[in-house]
Amino acid sequence: MIPENSEKALLEGLAINDRKAVETIYRQNFNMVQALILNNNGSADDAKDVFQEAMIVLYEKARSGNFELNCQLKTFVYSVCRRLWLKRLQQQNRYASPGDSMEAVVAVDDDLEAHEQRNAEFEMMENAINHLGEPCKSLLEAYYLQKQNMQVIAANFGYTNADNAKNQKYKCLMRLKKIFFSQYKNGKTDG
Question: pLDDT tens digit string along 105-121?
Fold first, then answer.
């Protein structure tokens, strides 16, 4: 979590158009906004447009001098982007809002919390993969990321046949699962 005074410094930097502050806000928030847009009928270009609009809103509020942030900066950015996107979907008739209300189907905090939970789980999975060791790590990457078939994996890893490679892949998956869930149970995302 970012300390409150750091967020205040970011807003002050944004108000004077400080490049470092703008880049920091972008780096800390864009992926979250992009996930929101992509998961709700949007494209990467839509995400860039909406984020840019939100940055303008934030910039104008920061410049006003009387803007008081009463939540985390990421919550504010997410909320603004969400409202902008819902408004755009409504204008394009791609979103039928219940009644006249533009309020969320899911509360912003719940949505943000789910996003943060997924990020934490991805971090735990990456950590588990890093603790997996060789040859399991390379074997799983060859199969799942490089999309190699079992014959190719058997040849590359020195297994006698594709069935042996498949059995080893299964053992590696079980080992990865064990590492991941032991970390998950302990809520551990660091090394």
Answer: 445 656 677 667 777 77
> Of 91, 123, 149, which residue constitutes the final position of a domain?
91
**Dihedral, 103, 109, 112, 117 alpha carbons, nearest 10:** -140
Residues 140, 144, 150, 155, CA torsion sign: negative
Domain-embedded: residue 52: yes
Structural domain includes residue 173: yes
Structural domain count, the chain: 2
Residue 137 tokens read as 């790590």
In a domain, 101, yes or no: no
Torsion of CA 23, 29, 35, 41, to 10 degrees: -80
What does the chain come to in residues? 191
Instruction: Tell me, yes or no, if the pTM score tops 0.85.
Output: no
